[in-house]
Amino acid sequence: MAVPEDSLFTMKYTPRFLMMLDVKTLRLPDDMKIPVLVGLGDNDELFTVEKEKELYELIPEDKKEFLVMENTTHSLIPRESWMQVVNWLDCTFINFEMN
User: Fold this and answer.
1) 10 Å Cβ neighbour count for 9?
2) Alpha-carbon distance 19 to 62, whole Å?
3) What is the pLDDT along the chain (99 residues), one digit of tens a residue?
4) 38: helix, coil or strand?
5) What are the residue ranges spanned by the domains of the chain?
6) Of 5, 13, 35, whose CA–CA distance to 96 is shortest?
């Protein structure tokens, strides 16, 4: 994770986020059957596309998609990018059944 040199940028939520789960012990089940969307902005200030792609590759789900949203930062998500997520949800879960 990178911290931009912007005096208005705060990391207030980050400690809470980092304490939500212990990523060193996180293990995803091999038989996980839940569609997954991993997305980030092409101008994200905290996470790189390469690192998010590494996370994506670790997900043992066949129904997964990797989305890099154009003109999007970590906290500024234009309507067009939100609509990509909404469309993925609609297409993915319209007939989805959890087993």
Assistant:
1) 12
2) 29
3) 555 566 555 555 555 555 666 767 877 777 767 899 999 999 998 889 999 999 999 888 888 999 999 999 988 899 999 999 999 999 998 876 655
4) strand
5) 33-93
6) 35
